[in-house]
Amino acid sequence: MTVLTLRRVEIAVFLLVACGLHAAEEEPDRGRLGVNLGGYFHYGPVDGFLQTPAGGQPGSSSHHRPTLDELDIHDAVFYDAVGSIDWHRLRLFAGYEAIGLDGDSVLSESLVSRSVTFPAGTAVRSSTELNWLRVGAGWKFDFADQHLELVPKAELALLDFSYQLSGGGQGVSRSYAKGCVRLGLESRYRFNRTVSLSLEAAASLPLSNTPQIAVLSGGFQFDPLPATWRYRPTFFVGGGAQRIEYEDNQELPNHFRIDMGPFVTAGLGFSF
Q: Is the separation of the CB atoms in 29 and 22 below 8 Å?
């Protein structure tokens, strides 16, 4: 997980430096207070597993199972809401991402989860949520005559995990919330007043017993109205990839890993 995260951040930094070699038109004054609100829709393939033991006891969960594939979960639709306040070079932000993974399938082999055995041939239904909240701050730096903006940032994130599996007259469930510290880098390169390219890379610090949430995303933002307008809509299209993983310190750990992507993104925002 750490190697994957570092590679994603290195790729993002390389792209940002490449953008910095170009110039663009002059950017509006940033001295005033700015507020930005946005909502995003994401869709793409998903893969992973949900190892969920009971009290960390060996044998209380099949190794790296159930997989999303055997639960007949292959694609994900998830949503993101974000808000930020810019004051001079300081950026304060918060966001919430809602991820729900539901599936119905028939097990091809026996599965143990939370010390309950689901025999092969059992029709099962699963419901998993990986919702996470983040709050943080960043500091803006300008390059190329203030047309390339880089924002290193730090944030606190809270992952709310919920897992349910039922079938054959049996059912198990598990939920918990875990926090982590994340570092990241945002950028925006303005081709002109209307069109800009945004790139972002962020990942959790590799601390024991904390979730690892790594995101690499990017896309084009369109600002159709002049900057002199008080309320301005913005439109965003792009894509990215994301990994969410957690493993605790029990003898047989709670351990899940979810890979989403490459996914496509569409969003609508307002600035004022």
A: no
Q: Rounded to whole angstroms, how far apart are CA atoms 20 and 181?
A: 28
Across residues 88-95, what is the average pLDDT? 96
The model carries a pTM of 0.85
Any residues with CB less than 8 A from the CB of 82 and at least 6 apart, and which?
36, 37, 38, 39, 40, 93, 94, 95, 96
Query: Using an 8 Å Cβ cutoff, are 150 and 140 in contact?
Result: yes
Q: pLDDT tens digits, residue range 127-167?
A: 999 999 999 999 999 998 888 999 999 999 999 999 999 99
CA nearest neighbour of 113 among 161, 73, 72, 65: 65
SS3 label, residue 61: coil
**113-133 b/e with 16+ CB inside 10 Å = b?**
bbebebeeebebebebebbbb
| DSSP H/E element including 11 | helix 2-19
Tokens of 143: 């390059």
Residue range 49-83, pLDDT digits in tens:
999 999 999 999 999 999 999 999 999 999 999 99
| CB distance 44 to 77 below 8 Å | no
Q: Token digits for 140? A: 């803006």
**What residues contact 119, with CB distance under 8 A and at least 6 apart?**
107, 110, 168
